[in-house]
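Two proteins follow. First one:
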Amino acid sequence: LSACDPAKGGAKAPPRATDAAPMPSQRSLIAVPIDADIAPLKAQLERALPKTLWTINQREKACVAPQRVKLFGKRVKVTPAIPCTIVGQVTRGALRLRGEGNEIIVDMPLHATVAARDIGGVLKGETATGAALAHARIRIDLAPDWRMQGKARISYGWTKAPGIDFLGKRITFTDQADAKLAPVVRDVEREVNREIGKINIRAQAAEIWRQSFTSLELNRQNPPVWMRVTPQRILYGGYRLNGNRLSLNLGIEGVTETFVSERPENPESVPLPKLVREMPHPHLDIRVPVVADYEQLQPVIDRALAKR
């Protein structure tokens, strides 16, 4: 330009900058929900828990208490205590899994069959049946090293207590059944925690993290615009249950840079970092104007000038 040519009376050209042009960058947070199928948990529990949970065969000194009547002002025993042998078993039905809020519920129907037998044949092998429904309520957690952890608490109640009617009284066997069910409950808790730990979230998260070091096309042409994403952290904000799907609320926070040019090179990826417990609030920052290749902007500028 003559204005920059001292020989033609112009000013001296300013020094040419040799440093790299500044690239505008900002932090964005992108939601990346991960789903895990909890159906295998049910299958593993079905295999781990036997169909027959316990059997019983024990001698009781007094299945039926002595019968007494009041005679001459005193209570007189008219029948002795009736000893018996209690035999039976408790079996379980098919497990059912469901979601309730942030808990996984495992429903386990129980069926008890108990018989009371005595030497004298007074009870005549009376058989009792009962039913109960056990619930395993599981809360899961995701440790910083991406391991799944489960905390299970078991509760159950007899919808029909096992017992027999004899001599006008109801004889129940819930104490014997409860004593046998206690270790079964502990086994269920142990199996639940063990199977929860097998859910491999880390592999899915690592693959998503690797793929996040990329460039996203914002505009195909006239001019081409790309956003390069360089992840910095991955945040965890809890989970929710949808049927048999466990949806983790994750977000990737990283630096985003905008280019008006051909596709820039992907940033170099780094290994999956530790999990950060922080509720993701997704947002995307794209700033313009940006440092652009002139050859990409020239056709746009030419068209704008031609219109004027």
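Second one, unrelated to the first:
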Amino acid sequence: MSRDASVTLPFADGDKTFRLAWGELIKLQEACDAGPYVVYRRLMMGQWKIEDISHTIRLGLIGGGMAPDKALGFVRDYVECRPPLESLALAQGILGVALQGVPDETPGEPEGETAGSSSQTSPMENGE
């Protein structure tokens, strides 16, 4: 996972990058006639619709950089031709990362800071 909410997961014939940025989340909302969190809750609570799974994966592939026609082909071949439960965990993971971000990062914590570092000296100060 990365800071931009992209995630690389095994899918189809190898590892694929998935990302649901703001634009893809809007498209998901329109396609599923529900907000992204409502779709996520349905996926997690077992109240999903078939389209919740397929649209999440397709839009995640597109957001991850795959051409829309290629993403549609992958979803047709590897999602829609298989039992829905085989793809449920993938859809949950893609949408979960998009909504929650990277789980091991603390929001607001500056990058590059060492825990417990108490130095107040600016890197520009020379000690004179």
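SUMMARY FIELD: The chain has a mean pLDDT of 86. The chain is about 50% helix and 10% strand.
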